[in-house]
Amino acid sequence: MSVRPSEERLADAPALDAAPRAWWPLLISLVGLLTTAALLLENRPDGSGDFDYPVTAEDVVELGHVAFRVSGLLGYVAALSMLVLAAVWHQRVGRRFPWSTGASVVTFSLVASASLMTLAYGWRGALGNYLPTGMEGDSYDAEGLYTYFVMNDFSPYIAGVPLLGAGFALAWMSFADGLVSRPLGVAAGLVSALLLLAVAVSGVPGLPAAMSVAMVVAGVWLTLGRSQVTG
Predict the structure, then answer these.
(1) What mean pLDDT is predicted for residues 149-154?
(2) Helix and strand tally (H, E) in the chain?
(3) In this structure, what are the phi and psi dihedrals at residue 2, rounded to the nearest 5 degrees?
(4) Which residue has the higher pLDDT, 17 or 161?
(5) What are phi and psi of 65, to 5 degrees?
(6) Which residues are CB-contacts of 188 (< 8 A; sequence separation ≥ 6)?
(7) 42 neighbors 71 (Cβ within 8 angstroms)
(8) Closest by CA position to 166, among listed 81, 90, 226
(9) Distance CA 93, CA 169 (A)
C-alpha cells in the first residue's frame, strides 16, 4: 500500500525522542465517545428482559419520542465531528506522509462513516418527530412508524462498517509503513478482523458499531504512546 522504501519513509519523520507529545489524537477519543453516546441513546420496546417477542407496530407507537430526537441531534454532532477528525487526520498525517496509502484509507473511512451516520441519525430524529407524542405525530399510521423503527434498528450500527477499514489501515501503517506502534497496529487489526469475523459467523450486521469504542482507546493510545504519526 506504500511506494517508498523504508529508509525514505523514516527520513521524512523527525526522531521520536525529540518530538513533543501531540494531543490532537484525543480528538479521536472524543469523536468515539460522541458516536457511542448517540448510538446507545435510544428507546426500545424490547428493552426489558421479559419482553414477549415479536416487536409489533402496536409496541412501536407506545414509545416516547424524546430519546430519538436527542439521539438524532447528537448523531448529527458526532457525524460533523467525524468530518472534522477526517480533516485533522489528513492535515496531520495524510499530508505529512502522502506516500502512505494506509493514511489515506483512514481519512476515507472516517468520511464514509460520517456519511452513513448522517442518514442513520436523520432517520432516528425523524422517528422522534413522527411518534404520536412528537411534533408531527399525526403524519404516519402504526405501520409507517414500524417501518421507521426497523430502519433505526440497524442503520446507526452499520455506520461503523467503514471504521473497520481504518482499523486495518492502522495495522498496515504499523507493519508496512512503520508509522504506528506495533502494539497499536496489532490491536487495531485484530479488533477489526474479529468484528468482521463475528458478522460472518453471527449474521448480525451492526457489530462493527463497536469500533466507536475502539476509537476511544486508539486516541488515548496514540496520545500517550510512541508513533511516527504523532512525532
Answers:
(1) 88
(2) 9, 0
(3) -120, 160
(4) 161
(5) -95, -20
(6) 166, 167, 168, 170, 171, 174, 180, 214, 218
(7) yes
(8) 90
(9) 13
25 to each of 56, 85, 139, 174, how far by Cα in Å?
Answer: 44, 9, 44, 16
Dihedral angle sign, alpha carbons of residues 91, 106, 9, 221: positive
Higher pLDDT, 230 or 109: 109
CA distance 89 to 79: 15
Could you give the CA distance from residue 228 to residue 231 in angstroms, rounded to a whole number? 5
Give this prediction's pTM: 0.87
Instruction: Return the closest-CA partner of residue 125 out of 82, 59, 78, 56.
Output: 78
How many Cβ atoms from other residues are within 10 Å of residue 12's Cβ? 14
The pLDDT score that the predictor gives to residue 48 is 62
**pLDDT confidence bin for 53, thresholds 50/70/90:** confident
In 10 A of CB 136, how many CB atoms?
12
Omega cis (within 30) before 54: yes
H or E, element range at 102? helix 101-130
Cα–Cα dist 89/181, whole Å: 17
Maximum CA pair distance of the chain?
A: 66
Which own/partner pairs from 15-19 qualify as long-range (CB within 8 Å, at least 24 positions apart)? Answer: 15/231, 16/226, 16/228, 16/231, 19/230, 19/231
Compute the chain's Rg from CA coordinates.
Answer: 20
Beta bridge partners of 100: 2
Cα dihedral 20→26→28→29 (10° resolution): 150
